[in-house]
Amino acid sequence: MAENKIQKEADRFKVKTQLRSYIGAIFLMAITAIGPGFLMQTTVFTQKSGASFGFVILASVVIDIIVQINVWRIIVASGKRGQEIGNAVLPGLGYFISVLIIIGGLCFNIGNVAGAALGLNVLFGLSIKPAAVICGIIALSIFCFKQIGEIMDKFVSTFGIVRILLAVFVAVAALPPVQEAVVKTFVPDTIDIMALITLIGGSVGGYITFTGGHRLLDSGIKGIKFIPQATRSAVSGILITGVMRIILFLGALGVIAHGYAIDPANPAASVFQSAAGDIGYKLFGIVIWSAGTTSVIGCAYTSVSFLKSFSNKIDAYYSKIIIAFIIFSTFVFVLIGQPVKVLIIVGTINGFILPLALASILIGAYNKKIVGEYKHPVWMTVTGILVVIVMGYMSVHTFITQFLS
Predict the structure, then answer these.
(1) What pTM value is reported for the model?
(2) Regarding the domain with residue range 19-404, which homologous superfamily does it belong to in the CATH classification?
(3) Membrane-spanning residues where (predicted)?
(4) Residue 328 and residue 326: Cα distance in Å, rounded?
(5) Where are the chain's structural domains?
(6) For residue 259, is it left (φ>0), alpha (ψ between -120 and 50) or beta?
């Protein structure tokens, strides 16, 4: 009897731990994606496209779900990280992808530091550069504790929920033209390819592609039996980002529809302030600070995880390398400044990495040395290939038109 009771307690603890890991992975991926660039991009592109931006959001959510269910399932089934799958598909490919993701993650993290600094600037009137240093110190302090995973999950999920609730308040206060938004979401006047690339790059591009999957592996969740839970978790994470994007879109659309001006120096702040006055402006400070800080944490955690493919010794110094990554990102931002410009550009950069990373994962799904007996659904492969082709084409098209013309 005593042994059965102990076993039941052990099983309950295991289930509880796994559930916490799934929730942690969902929020780490989702809330990392809902960073300061996310806030700026949504406002800037809503101002540009109006209600038709709803179509871009819908398209990006569909593509994001396709990307994440493919990646999470294959990573969990194989028990291998994204770069390890890449190296197994083609020797050296994983290293190449790792370099791209680490560079992209560094660029993204500079933008995250910028967003967090803007938050402190709004809340306390601090100058941007000193604020960036403070935000960097807060983020790296998470990695000074032994229970990194548990503390990180709680920090990210708590501030993620707070951020969503505050955004809902502002969206309601803005009194957006919901009917027009719904119509134009399905019948847009225009489709902004640059906006679509940027949104996808900012929500599932670069390091974010692998954030949730790598978090599950670090929690010991791997193997075919965990595939259903991994799939549900991936979809849940994307739906969270989609809901937040819609909330911000409606808030920005409401402000624009009522004739308020959007400040190009801080577009997202304009939305919050126009919708809810000075209180809204301070709420924006809380939202973008938490967005920046949680994204700094998630970005550093995932980007550095790609260094593990270069040396087995990385594990021994994992926390210290993450801290160094955050310090370097903060230092670079302090040197270059221009937070809003950085936040818009970094999403586009990550959009270029996605087609290559996803293609390597899809090829790996059909290598038994990688996934064993796992059978990847044909419809997931087909839709994944379509995303690779479409994103590859749009990335090249955007690069030519935006940077070479």
Answers:
(1) 0.84
(2) Amino acid/polyamine transporter I (1.20.1740.10)
(3) 21-39, 51-76, 88-111, 123-143, 155-175, 195-217, 238-261, 281-304, 316-336, 342-366, 378-400
(4) 5
(5) 19-404
(6) left
